[in-house]
């Protein structure tokens, strides 16, 4: 294995060029969409420290020890999903020093094709986040994409650090309540000090309670876990589908093991060509854009149902009034507390998907207007929307990966100033800038090698992204597309959903399935318009 190819230390003098989505060496006519993208990128400035060096150069990796390479996957029906088979595999804590610590467990799953004569190979899928669980996802995938389930053994896994795999441990749910307590928009000195103290405590608790595991929870180690899984499945090459953060896992895997990739679909793309610091600094803009340009007009058009205002401006003013009321008097109902930060969190969660998220968020907002008198079903929905987002297990993995993969600025005065700026411009997500960045600013210094994604040696890769995706914003997808040479980008217009396949867009479905089932890759980038729905 060529383990050192395309792996370098971060270079702070070479920021990601995200001005255009064109592959290197390709001249393109500047379209109105490209001009809009350039204008939006100009509004998202980054601190000079973004992408600063801090990751170590990649050491040579020894051959995979026999105790890993020769293990047997003992498949059994999954306890939580009988349509799948589950097993566990042992992986080294550190792939670069396999004898240097205790083994980790990675839980794996598979859905096998019904007719072996129709089998094209194995399709491996990973989960997003970081922090999402992937073990049971093949079941939903083959249900929603039956043509692929009939052609591929679809396999998944809980990545190291989450789910049924060896977990990171940071805080109990009770301890974790302090992290989201109060109001992140409060910029008073006392509030700033409290936010920083909570972030420092979370980072310290993660380090103290995870038994030396934290440095090895990163994307590069997960990519190597995938290659062991591939080998234990007996596959020379695999096909890969990954949404959200799994696009970064896939891009790293493809860079480290290009000869092992048959086909690859990256759906809703992390900015895997740059640092996590760079990428997350773009999210306040994109979440605010989705909230104001997509959700609020949708909500206003349904004033007869939700009674939240007949114009986007009225709906936004109503939302802000509710937030101010929760600042003064948080809603407390048993173990549930909904304050301004919880309102933000539920809104962030609800705008990922128009059809699946917008109605749940709108129902939950109406329940807050008269909690005692609200319909019990609406209160139950609000409990889920405002009370179940970003728990301690998810964030243990989220911070481990985002703080370990690339270095962050450690100057908290810079983050306090940037937090105030983001709160003023893009408050929905911008208000939490200081809280999240302060965790990585006080995290143990990262030691993970940085993988420079180039696309060298890969077959053409298919990338999907909507123009208003709040989490994996289009501007970052363009930059990642440019870095991944030979990739084809499917731009989904009239849409802001996070995750495009499998879904209702027949254009997207046709492109993906033609590629995965008939090896037909688009000759160039293309656009799929979203179907118009009421």
Provide a brief overview of the structure.
By secondary structure, this protein is an alpha/beta fold. It has helices at 32-43, 66-69, 137-144, 146-151, 173-176, 189-209, 219-232, 245-256, 276-300, 303-306, 312-328, 340-350, 354-369, 376-387, 392-405, 412-425, 427-430, 433-441, 474-483, 506-518, and strands at residues 7-8, 76-77, 85-91, 104-111, 121-125, 152-157, 238-244, 261-269, 331-333, 336-338, 450-451, 462-466, 488-493, 526-529.
- Beta content: 5-15%
Mean pLDDT metric: 89
> How many alpha or pi helices?
20
Number of strands: 14
At the fourth level of CATH, the homologous superfamily of the largest domain is: Alpha/Beta hydrolase fold, catalytic domain
CATH topology of the largest domain: Rossmann fold
Helical coverage, percent range: 40-55%
Give the C-alpha Rg: 23 Å
For the biggest β-sheet, the strand order reads 2-3-4-6-5-7-8-12-13-14
Describe this structure in words.
With 534 residues, the protein is α/β, with parallel strands linked by helices. The chain folds into two domains: 66-158 and 218-275 and 450-529, 3-Layer(aba) Sandwich (Rossmann fold), CATH 3.40.50; 168-210 and 280-405 and 409-442, no CATH class. It is built from 20 helices and 14 strands. It has helices at 32-43, 66-69, 137-144, 146-151, 173-176, 189-209, 219-232, 245-256, 276-300, 303-306, 312-328, 340-350, 354-369, 376-387, 392-405, 412-425, 427-430, 433-441, 474-483, 506-518; strands at residues 7-8, 76-77, 85-91, 104-111, 121-125, 152-157, 238-244, 261-269, 331-333, 336-338, 450-451, 462-466, 488-493, 526-529. A ten-stranded mixed β-sheet has the order 2-3-4-6-5-7-8-12-13-14, with helices on both faces. Helix 20 links the parallel strand 13 and strand 14 (526-529). Helix 6 (189-209) crosses helix 18, helix 7 crosses helix 8 (245-256) and helix 15 packs across helix 18.
């Amino acid at each position: 294995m060529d383990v050192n190819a395309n792996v370098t230390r971060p270079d702070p003098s070479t920021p990601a060029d995200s001005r255009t989505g064109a592959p290197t060496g390709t001249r393109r006519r500047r379209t109105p969409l490209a001009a809009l993208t350039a204008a939006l990128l100009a509004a998202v400035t980054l601190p000079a420290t973004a992408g600063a060096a801090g990751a170590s150069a990649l050491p040579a990796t020894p051959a995979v020890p026999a105790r890993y390479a020769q293990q047997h996957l003992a498949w059994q029906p999954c306890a939580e999903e009988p349509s799948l088979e589950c097993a566990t595999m042992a992986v080294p804590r550190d792939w670069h020093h396999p004898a240097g610590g205790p083994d980790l467990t990675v839980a794996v799953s598979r859905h096998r094709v019904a007719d072996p004569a129709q089998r094209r190979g194995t399709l491996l899928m990973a989960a997003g986040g970081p922090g999402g669980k992937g073990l049971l996802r093949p079941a939903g995938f083959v249900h929603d994409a039956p043509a692929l389930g009939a052609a591929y053994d679809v396999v998944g896994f809980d990545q190291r650090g989450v789910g049924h795999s060896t977990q990171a441990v940071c805080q109990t749910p009770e301890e974790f309540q302090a992290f989201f307590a109060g109001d992140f928009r409060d910029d008073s000195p006392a509030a700033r000090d409290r936010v920083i103290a909570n972030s420092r405590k979370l980072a310290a608790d993660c380090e103290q309670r995870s038994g030396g595991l934290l440095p090895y929870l990163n994307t590069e180690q997960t990519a190597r876990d995938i290659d062991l899984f591939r080998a234990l499945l007996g596959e020379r090459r695999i096909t890969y589908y990954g949404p959200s953060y799994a696009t970064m896992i896939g891009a790293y895997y493809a860079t480290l093991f290009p000869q092992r990739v048959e086909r690859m679909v990256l759906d809703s793309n992390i900015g895997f060509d740059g640092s996590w610091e760079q990428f997350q600094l773009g999210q306040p803009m994109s979440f605010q854009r989705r909230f104001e340009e997509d959700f609020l007009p949708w909500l206003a058009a349904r004033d007869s149902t939700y009674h939240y205002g007949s114009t986007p401006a009225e709906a936004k003013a109503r939302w802000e009034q509710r937030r101010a009321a929760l600042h003064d008097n948080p809603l407390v109902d048993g173990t549930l507390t909904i304050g301004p930060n919880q309102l933000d969190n539920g809104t962030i969660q609800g705008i990922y998907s128009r059809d699946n998220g917008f109605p749940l968020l709108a129902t939950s907002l109406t329940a807050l207007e008269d909690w005692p008198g609200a319909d019990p079903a609406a209160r139950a929905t609000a409990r889920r929307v405002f009370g179940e987002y970003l728990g301690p297990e998810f964030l243990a993995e989220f911070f481990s990966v985002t703080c370990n993969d690339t270095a962050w600025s450690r100057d908290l005065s810079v983050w306090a100033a940037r937090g105030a700026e983001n709160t003023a411009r893009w408050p929905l997500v911008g208000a939490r800038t200081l809280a999240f960045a302060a965790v990585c600013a006080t995290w143990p210094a990262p030691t993970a090698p940085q993988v420079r994604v180039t696309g060298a040696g890969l077959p053409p890769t298919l990338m999907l992204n909507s123009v208003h995706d709040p989490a994996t914003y289009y501007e970052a997808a363009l930059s990642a597309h440019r870095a991944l040479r030979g990739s084809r980008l499917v731009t989904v217009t009239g849409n802001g959903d996070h995750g495009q396949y499998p879904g209702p867009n027949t254009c997207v479905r046709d492109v993906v399935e033609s590629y995965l089932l008939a090896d037909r890759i688009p000759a160039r980038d293309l656009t799929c318009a979203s179907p118009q729905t009421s």
